[in-house]
Amino acid sequence: MTDASLRHPRDVLFEEGDAVPDLPVCDHYCGVEARMRKSLDLQAELGPVFDVTLDGEDGAPVGGEVEHAHLIAELATSAQNRFGRVGARVVPVDHPAFVPMLEALLPRAGERLAYLMIPKPRHLADLQQAVTTIDALSAQANLTRALPLHALVETHGALRDAFAMAAHPRIESLSFGLMDFVSAHRGAIPQSAMGVEGQFQHPLVLRAKLEITAACHAAGKVPSHCVVTEFKDSDALQQAAEKACRQLGYTRMWSIHPDQIRPIVDAFSPTTAEIDQAAEILLAAQAADWAPIRHRHLGRDQLHDRASYRYFWQVLQRAHRTSFSEGPQLPAEVRARFFAETAGA
């Protein structure tokens, strides 16, 4: 087959509605103005391998949420938002500043924000109320698109409704709010479960994490893992990120300190061996017009068809998504064959 006749994996391997939002694997939160500006500068340096979420909830002074929203709008519409991967966290839907914050954000920055994060929904009804309000104010602001929405699962009711929340058509990602979730148990879960080791050991915390990943994958949405507060322990962070990605099924993770970004991205990146295997299989499959092929791996012949091609395509997508600006991670032939349209992005 000629290069012009080779069909792209996204045109062959997936049915309509199978697409999952293509989000960076790291979501970096910052709320103080100096740190917000430094985070945007770091994103410009490293490339869009992480999102920057400008925090209008915990990052805003109490009583100063609306003023903080104006600052977020200023930054989101500035030249520092180089890649269009800047989002904002607002206050909960029942907070008095919820609507005023949106009135400050949407008319000015609604077209430039990558998403809005909705914290602390107590149940599906809270999420629906927030979506209705956001969409009404977006219409008043004459936005030309439906602004993508993320939500934090950090209450008992939200965890109970996780599958319904993930299935909501306006949601593209659910995050786990570890600290609030543990606190909601009124001392029944020890403080150690908030730590880098305990959060992967306590049964109630693990159950919550797995419910969220299951809900998101069932609905074709992105599950985002909670923070690790031990931000100076890079080895512990790396291990936590690897557990979140390779054991619990998360495809995205929060960062709360710039030093956490690179270890998270590295942990969520495929290994060189995984990339090489996926590239070999998909290049051969494309040459065979996506018919079944035989591939030799670790001394054994293996049969592959479209079911496994989908997995290997996702490996290459993740490798492309986690490639820092200082050097592409994928082989040149793979970039040219499958990612040429994003080469200049």
From TrEMBL:
Pfam families: HpcH_HpaI. Residues 54-258 form the HpcH/HpaI aldolase/citrate lyase domain. GO terms for molecular function: lyase activity. InterPro entries: Aldolase/citrate-lyase_domain, Citramalyl-CoA_lyase, Pyrv/PenolPyrv_kinase-like_dom, Pyrv_kinase-like_dom_sf. Signal peptide: none annotated. Keywords: Lyase, Metal-binding. It comes from the Bacteria. This is Aldolase/citrate lyase family protein. It comes from Ideonella oryzae.
